[in-house]
Specification:
The protein is of the alpha+beta class. The protein has 9 helices and 16 strands. The strands form 3 sheets. Strands 1, 9, 10, 11, 12, 13, 14, 15 and 16 form a 9-stranded mixed sheet that branches. Strand 7 and strand 8 form a beta hairpin. The two termini are about 15 Å apart.
Length: about 375
């Protein structure tokens, strides 16, 4: 009966999307030779806005620089070579320079430049972001797997997804709270959804609190925290000379997608002393409750995710695709479907299922 009720849970609930007001710009008929002023270029691109002072035209071509959120993106066109040159900077750190022939449509040239910028992760930005963000917030940065390309979306460039487990009874309050934090003055887009995933957590014996080695206590703790019972009784597994207690469960993760350039600002907007996103000065979050930050779309391109804590005492395995439910849709696809669905109704369904599962304490 418990497993049947797990199967009734919706795979994803698109909660909200915030899109800042921007002037539309079409690259379809763009000709770099006809650019005479900043009015011939998009007012917003990749990291921020284009001000008149950041546009320069010379006899050899032109240069435009879009700035915002401690980052900038530059696009230069030279008549003689008929080439674009792209550079980027974040917190004073150069993100590289790429030259692309102007015979390629401009939007495709920008995308090609970004694929070159991030061809070999981790980039210098990734390393700097890891130190900056993990020094200030209780989060875990997930490295981009080799061979998995970044997704570039214009006009905001690459994005990052913040993911953290959330109890079914906290989904509705989190939905409301996030919408309040992402006010109209937020200068970048934000997309949020709740995603049902399979998670297996290994607690290394002798290195984690004693209650993690007691199956009933471990199962009940997970049920209390997440509002859903685990899939089965935690079991003791041994590999080489190391033993660990393994908890398997279906759990909702909150996924929040923001542009890379807006990530620090977003974390500062939503961090709180006792919430799911905390500064390093706040009460500590247990490793398996800490938010993850990874390249947006990784939940589609990578079948699963494995991460250890710093001291190798806990391991979290997350599988995005649930058995029998097919390949997960992207956050954008789920957001499009949400126009036909009522998030409040889906949240109520999840709450009702969670309540039924919690009517009687589950024994193993």
């Amino acid at each position: 009966m418990i497993l049947l009720r797990h199967n009734e849970l919706p795979s994803a609930i698109a909660l909200f999307g915030h899109t800042p007001e921007r002037d539309l710009f079409s690259w379809r008929n763009f000709n770099p030779r006809q650019v005479k002023s900043p009015n011939d270029l998009p007012r917003y691109l990749i990291f921020g806005g284009l001000k008149p002072v950041d546009f320069e035209q010379t006899g050899s071509g032109w240069t435009a620089r879009w700035r915002g959120n401690s980052a900038s993106f530059s696009m230069t066109y030279l008549h003689a070579s008929d080439n674009y040159s792209f550079t980027q900077s974040w917190r004073g750190i150069s993100g590289g320079e790429v030259t692309v022939p102007a015979k390629i449509p401009a939007d495709q040239a920008i995308a090609a430049a970004f694929q070159s910028f991030y061809a070999e992760p981790p980039t210098v930005w990734d390393r700097a972001a890891r130190k900056t963000l993990e020094d200030n917030f209780q989060i875990n940065i997930v490295d981009q797997p080799k061979g998995v390309q970044e997704v570039v979306e214009l006009p905001d460039g690459i994005s990052r997804t913040l993911a953290f487990p959330i109890a079914v009874f906290n989904l509705r309050p989190m939905w409301r709270w996030l919408k309040e934090q992402v006010r109209q003055d937020c200068p970048y887009p934000v997309l949020a959804e709740a995603r049902l995933v399979f998670q297996a957590i290994n607690f290394v014996e002798g290195k984690t609190p004693s209650w993690t080695g007691r199956p009933v206590s471990l199962a009940k703790q997970s049920h209390v925290e997440m509002g859903l019972p685990p899939l089965a009784e935690p079991i003791r597994e041994v590999a080489d000379t190391t033993a660990a207690w393994t908890l398997r469960r279906l759990v909702y993760f909150m996924l929040v997608k923001v542009p890379f350039s807006g990530l620090t600002d977003f974390l500062e907007r939503v961090e709180s002393e006792n919430g799911p996103i905390r500064s390093t000065q706040a009460p500590p979050l247990r490793f398996d409750m800490r938010p993850l930050v990874f390249s947006s779309g990784l939940e589609q391109r990578a079948r699963n995710l494995v991460i250890w804590d710093a001291h190798k005492t806990m391991r979290s395995f997350i599988q995005w695709a649930l058995p029998g439910r097919g390949k997960p849709a992207s956050m954008a696809e789920n957001a499009a479907k949400s126009r036909e669905q009522n998030p409040a109704a889906l949240l109520q369904l999840v709450e009702e299922i969670g309540a039924k599962m919690s009517e009687k304490p589950r024994g193993f």
